[in-house]
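During the reporting period the student researcher (J.K.) took over the structure-prediction task from the postdoctoral fellow and processed the backlog of single-chain submissions. One of the processed entries is reproduced below for the supervisory committee.
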Amino acid sequence: MALPLSCSIGEPLFAETTYQPGYSTSTQCFRDEYREEYVPGTKEKPGHVRNWTEKVEIPCRSNSSARKHPASKHSSKAQNVDDNSCIEGSILGGLLGSAAGAALSRGDGRWIGVPVGGAAGAMLGCQVDGG
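J.K. obtained the following structure tokens:
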């Protein structure tokens, strides 16, 4: 029975970037991990330790590797990113709209008043929240 042990001691990171003009770019980062395995022995044949290194893929850090391509004309343009979220406003508006629909409707009208109030409140809350 062999007992595997692994240890990664400050080994250097390696990044491999694949780039084709007109296509996408992919970056993979690797680390060399040092491994040991104890192979038990007998009285006649003593045990020993096997050791080796393995190349292991790890998540790349976004700030550690600057992507430089031969055709970097397009990378200098600022891209329009809409990171404006209205999730909080939709949830609060939906809850308030449902409550208003329940309070303002009567009898069997609550079956339609609560969902309509919730949908209207969610849309209004999203607009108020900046979506």
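The committee noted the following: The CA atoms of residues 95 and 118 lie 6 Å apart.
J.K. will present the remaining backlog at the next meeting.
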